[in-house]
UniProtKB/TrEMBL annotation:
<feature type="domain" description="EAL">
    <location>
        <begin position="1"/>
        <end position="254"/>
    </location>
</feature>
<protein>
    <recommendedName>
        <fullName>PAS fold family</fullName>
    </recommendedName>
</protein>
Length: 254
């Protein structure tokens, strides 16, 4: 398959892999509070290939381990750079279940911290529930080790999968990322609205930050703010941006 080919080549010829960054903001002030690293591949014609296409293939083929390491290294270096430039904001990196369950996860992360010089407090991992479903005890132990290093952890796409409150009782996580399907539905569908409200209240009572994904309009922002949601990201604020465009965005006043 051509995507697999491209993926393999990008691991050798690493400039074909690009990491874009989407700002995360404080909804009340629009101030940037962090960025999410999102991988992109560039094909031979220069066109961007979406992770929706290559991440599943990377997972099936096991290439996600190398790809994930590259994204992690790049994100740590870039975050170190903008922190040096006065933008004191953390970077979040998506970690697929395959990576999360891999024996080397904690070592790999420690190595990236050392190589980049980035302080652990500036790295956040986004993990979906798939990892906990596959091996809860293993995830529990790894999260514990990562927390001890000082890294924060978010549950990505919260509410979309098999959200189970047992996970929240035991896993050491800091944030829930409210899945964008609820944000999209909350203004039209009363059930979605109630679920959003419930997740925000759950976060507040468990001392977990809630960050809403997929905010596309001021109406979504206003509704979320009214329910007490503090953070968000989405096209209303900014799309995922290449490194230089992100720096421009950070240099612009909120
Ligand atoms: O960036 P975009 O919205 O197109 O991402 C589509 C999907 O690909 C999202 O679910 C996102 O989490 C995932 N994704 C993007 N970059 C990475 C990455 O570096 N690692 C993993 N595991 N998933 C990623
Ligand atoms: O699964 P994860 O949350 O990591 O996915 C992030 C994906 O969502 C990325 O592919 C990103 O490009 C996309 N995304 C970010 N903001 C918006 C938005 O406001 N609307 C839509 N439709 N997609 C978004
Ligand atoms: Mn994510
Ligand atoms: Na994700």
């Amino acid at each position: 398959r051509s995507t697999e080919e491209l993926l393999r080549r990008s691991l050798i010829n690493t400039e074909k892999l690009e990491v874009f960054y989407q700002p995360k903001v404080d909804l009340a002030t629009s101030q940037v509070i962090g960025v999410e690293a999102l991988a992109r591949l560039r094909d031979d014609s220069g066109k961007i290939v979406s992770p929706i296409e290559f991440i599943p293939i990377a997972e099936e083929t096991g290439l996600i381990i190398q790809l994930g390491n590259l994204v992690l290294e790049r994100a740590c270096q870039d975050c170190y750079e903008w922190n040096q430039k006065g933008h004191k904001i953390p970077v979040s990196v998506n970690i697929s279940a395959v990576q999360c369950l891999h024996n080397d996860l904690v070592n790999t992360i420690e190595t990236s911290m050392q190589t980049s010089g980035l302080e652990p407090a500036l790295l956040e991992l986004e993990v979906t529930e798939t990892a906990f479903i596959r091996d809860f005890e293993d995830t529990l132990e790894k999260f514990h080790q990562l927390k001890q290093i000082g890294i924060s952890i978010s549950i990505d796409d919260f509410g979309k999968g098999y959200s189970n409150l047992t996970y929240l009782r035991r896993l050491e996580v800091d944030k829930l990322k409210l899945d964008m399907s609820y944000v999209r539905g909350m203004l039209e569908n009363p059930r979605d609205y109630e679920i959003v409200k419930t997740i925000i209240n759950l976060g507040q009572s468990m001392n977990l930050d809630i960050i809403a994904e997929g905010i596309e309009t001021e109406f979504h922002r206003d509704a979320l703010l009214k329910l007490g949601c503090q953070y968000g990201q989405g096209y209303y604020y900014a799309k995922p941006l290449p490194h230089d465009a992100l720096l421009d965005y950070l240099n612009k006043p909120a």
